[in-house]
Amino acid sequence: MKIRIKFRKWGCMKFIGHLDMLRYFQKAMRRADVDICYSEGFSPHQIMSFAAPLGVGITSDGEYFDIEVHSTKTTREMLSDINAAMVDGVEVTGYVALPDNAKTAMSIVTAADYVLSYKDGYESPFTLEEWKAEILELFTSKDSFPIIKKTKKSEKEVDLKPLVYDFKVIEQNHKPAFYMNVSTGSVDNIKPELLLASIYEKLNINYQEEAIAIHRLDVYAADEKTGKQISLLEMGTVLE
Amino acid sequence: MRKLALNDEILMKVEKPARYIGNELNSIVKNPKDVDIRFVMCFPDVYEIGMSHLGIQILYDMFNKREDTWCERVYSPWPDLHKIMKQEHIPLFGLESQEPVKNADFLGITLQYEMCYTNILQVLDLAQIPLLAKDRTEEHPLVIGGGPCTYNPEPIADFFDIFYIGEGEIAYDQMLDLYKNMKAEGAEKREILRAISKMEGLYVPSLYKVTYKEDGTIDAFKPIYEDVPSTVKRQVLVDMTNGVYPEKPVVPFIKATQDRVVLEIQRGCIRGCRFCQAGMIYRPNREKDVSVLKEYAQKMLKATGHEEISLSSLSSSDYSQLEELVSFLLDECAKQHVNISLPSLRIDAFSLDVMSKVQDIKKSSLTFAPEAGSQRMRDVINKGLTVEDILDGSKQAFLGGWNKVKLYFMLGLPTETEEDMRAIPELANQIAALYYDTVPKEQRVGKCQITLSTSFFVPKPFTPFQWAKMESKDEYLRRAKIVNDHMKEQLNHKSLRYNWHEADVTVLEGVLARGDRKLSSVILHVYEHGGIFDSWSEFFDFDRWMQAFKACGIDIEFYNNRIRPEDEVFPWDFIDVGVTKEFMLREWKRALGKTVTPNCRMRCSGCGAKQYGGGVCYEN
Predict the structure, then answer these.
(1) B433 CB near a chain A CB, below 8 Å?
(2) Are residues A142 and A89 both part of a single domain?
(3) Is B308 an interface residue toward A (CB < 8 Å)?
(4) Structurally, how many domains does chain A consist of?
(5) Which residue, of B514, B538, B559, is where some domain finishes?
(6) Contact, B234 vs B575, CB < 8 A?
(7) What does the alpha-carbon distance between residue B135 and residue B118 come to, in Å, rounded to a whole number?
(8) pLDDT (tens place) for every residue of chain A, 240 residues total
């Protein structure tokens, strides 16, 4: 049976990279006695795949991985078992069964949304209203938003406009913050800080990476019928 | 939420920030208000290595079982963070509390190998604790060393307030009780140290005075006060079965060197190889009962979720209940998809059968440690393994489908001749020839691969070879060349590969292993000139050490390149290790006479370890 698990990650756990989170959950599955399926061969490994790897330094309310199990208890019981095997800073918030023909989380991700905010001790260069005006002028009102995307080997121009599905200024802890929903996954993967850093660049202000806290809210796939974004968790059913 | 000692900016900048955040599964966080004693336990190397060490896991568990004590961990910050901490004056912190180490009551440092000595100074320096014990005040923690290098603590004596000699399970509780009570009565550090020095197994170096003869050797090593004991007795956990053991070891987020459950099946070794310090200082051999091991295996797998379990011992094949344990683990592990790793097994029918069940034969290799190439040399070192053993084991393995063999040897053993050196590749050639004789052409998967590795022998305190002389760096390399050249002359040389160790590290290990208190100045000089992580080849700088010896006026040859006379007072003679110097000397003489000494199960050789009242000495 295919199972999708949702978890959140906060505090110092943001420094644990993607591959180490994978190892962490492999061990956690054993501690929680999850009846997980193993591959064949001399060094069998758990059937487990993560949706959209989260960068080091980012916290999240919406992380996903899929597993296959031989048997399972109810969603409520499984959440309780797995959470009993967690460390501080990781909590499993969803456990749903997927249809047998479900594609892996990794292959269907299309978008993710984030909040970028100013950390304690750092101030925004503009007020909330000033930011709203700037974003409207620089981004929302424009038909395109070309930026130079640098990779290890080359530099190329990319238009961010069609890859950013939502971008607005909000208030958090009495400071301006940014909500964004961006293209994610194997085709066009947009890192949230790329958008904000590009805005800073257009404004000719220095973007300080360490000033900005990045928090992922959720990860989405496109609904097969409507094409609308749906949260990865909604694609499964709660076990009762 | 816990506040981290390092800010986000730093953690995002350094390699592997997970080394510094704590929060690992099964790590212990207590409320500082609820405890009387804060203990920080340090392995002076990088996190991934330190986290793999069993001894710290045992003591961490044991200390934290005390309600009045909170034991935390700390490891050497990697050079990238080292630099930042120095620049920004960030004090080194315990992983659990993220609070400065300098505020603790104790800083315990485990000493596993000599080349970590500069990292001791790094840890003290970053912790903002004066490097020399004599410069510390009431406000600094007591710095206590433990582990195998404390069997000659003299080269680092100036940096420590206390050394614990022996197995930690025994005297720590009493020491902590004493500390707590004296502290509550308002005693000064000076008084506490004096009281501690009277406890068995605890050595307070500042309470002893060393005087030297004109030739540089020790004239006398004496306590300063009459009530301080003149010898320090090694502490031994006689009843291994009922000793404390961590049922819930800490599980790191990043992959440690030992990313597995480690089951200690026994301590000590019955073999008596004359070069081996562990084989002497952990006497008598003591086994843990198999029923307890089965229980621990299950509990620890459950508590950690590790996918692998490994047995820890000096010679697993000598564990009398091995078959029962291994067949239990094979059953249990198959159910749970857990891998088993079995280091230090003798190659025989049983171990080959087990290995074929737990490893992919095509990918794995057989390991033999003959340690010397010729039978003459093996008799000198009292290594029981014979050519027949090696060839029989290899033959069975070749028939079982293996075609890779690793062989470990030492060069520079006492009395070694060119003939002994040449015997090393000759033995390898014999094994390769055996492969081609044993396995028909149509069944071969390519050539067989015989890998020979040599390290250079370093005489260690409390071994029969503690009187032996070492060679110079050039002489070591000359010997490696003899082996290499002769390997190329072998008929099957295309199936052989030879690796040898660097000789300059060997020279330093030799000095630090058998050195005296004068060496503290050299280690200090090296640290002050930028030396850290000397056990890492990318950071090790031989010239920096040579300059330090020169600046401190210390002659390496005095320590390494002379046969020490029988009546010489060694820097470590004040330690009563339980195995007598008379036995060691007897063994040294037997070595020179090429006489083999039977193992402890065959016949007692009267080494002295029987006084502990347990283990193999009382088996029959």
Answers:
(1) no
(2) no
(3) no
(4) 2
(5) B514
(6) yes
(7) 18
(8) 999 999 999 999 999 999 999 999 999 999 999 999 999 877 789 999 999 999 999 999 999 999 999 999 999 999 999 999 999 999 999 999 999 999 999 899 999 999 999 999 999 999 999 999 999 999 999 999 999 887 778 888 899 999 999 999 999 999 999 999 999 998 889 999 999 999 999 999 999 999 999 999 999 999 888 989 999 999 999 999
